[in-house]
UniProtKB/TrEMBL annotation:
<feature type="transmembrane region" description="Helical">
    <location>
        <begin position="47"/>
        <end position="68"/>
    </location>
</feature>
<feature type="transmembrane region" description="Helical">
    <location>
        <begin position="22"/>
        <end position="40"/>
    </location>
</feature>
<protein>
    <submittedName>
        <fullName>Uncharacterized protein</fullName>
    </submittedName>
</protein>
<keyword id="KW-0472">Membrane</keyword>
<keyword id="KW-0812">Transmembrane</keyword>
<keyword id="KW-1133">Transmembrane helix</keyword>
Amino acid sequence: MIIAFIYAIINWHILKNTPEKWLVVFLSITVVIEIFANYFKRVEESSLLIFSNLVIILTNIVLFIWFYENIKNNKLLITSISIGLLSFLINMLYQNFLFEIFTIPILLFQ
């Protein structure tokens, strides 16, 4: 992931005027959250899974926007984000956001 992120930054001059600019945002969010997750897992010896859930939420929103940039359909973008957020809200009723990876959004979007 880090190598893909570095490669995307090196080629930013090519990507900045295309819908693929969202790839850099996606990779940067993922890399930053993974760095925090590794710190908490290795240094703090914590089993917080909030980082995995944050990756799912944020990267799916970025991917929805990237998808929108390619097809330019507002209704599809709003519907996709609404379904994604609704799945997280429903999942919050059944699982702990901090200590369990949400399963409904993973099944819905993977």
